[in-house]
Amino acid sequence: MTTERQMTDLEKKARELLKQRGVELHDIAELVFFLQNKYQENLTMEDCYENVNSVLMKREVQNAILTGIQLDILAEQKKLDHPLQEIIATDESLYGIDEVIALSIVNVYGSIGFTNYGYIDKVKPGILEKLNDKTDGDCHTFLDDIVGAIAAAASSRLAHRAVHDVSIDDE
């Protein structure tokens, strides 16, 4: 008999916002697979989903999702003051606060997340390429970094578990 875990309102809202902004768990799990399949011989998509879900259960991750997505939405609605409106709407390269929020997620499972995040942010595979496309009028200045960070953190969790070091996981 399995007991289903009760989600907090914060977690439900974070997951709902990801979905509303066009990001499915499958998209993030694919990024995790992309990052880890060369290093883990028997990696399955189920493993990737499990680790993405574990990352999404963390309160600091949920807070980062809500904060970043709200700023993206406000920028789309042109409700931010000048010059912040233009900076976020255009994803200005020297802004960097979007990466700072992402790094708060990356930190959850140790320093290996930094290299995972840096790599995935540079090559922008899968959903990250779509989120980074500015032609549709949507603003994903924070969302693309948040999604990459969730994938990087889940990949870090996988890497740590592969060497049987579960001491960093507080579940």
From TrEMBL:
Domain YutG/PgpA: 29-160
Protein name: Phosphatidylglycerophosphatase A
One Pfam family, short name: PgpA
Domain of life (superkingdom): Bacteria
Source organism of the structure: Gracilibacillus dipsosauri
GO molecular function, one term: phosphatidylglycerophosphatase activity
GO BP annotation list: lipid metabolic process
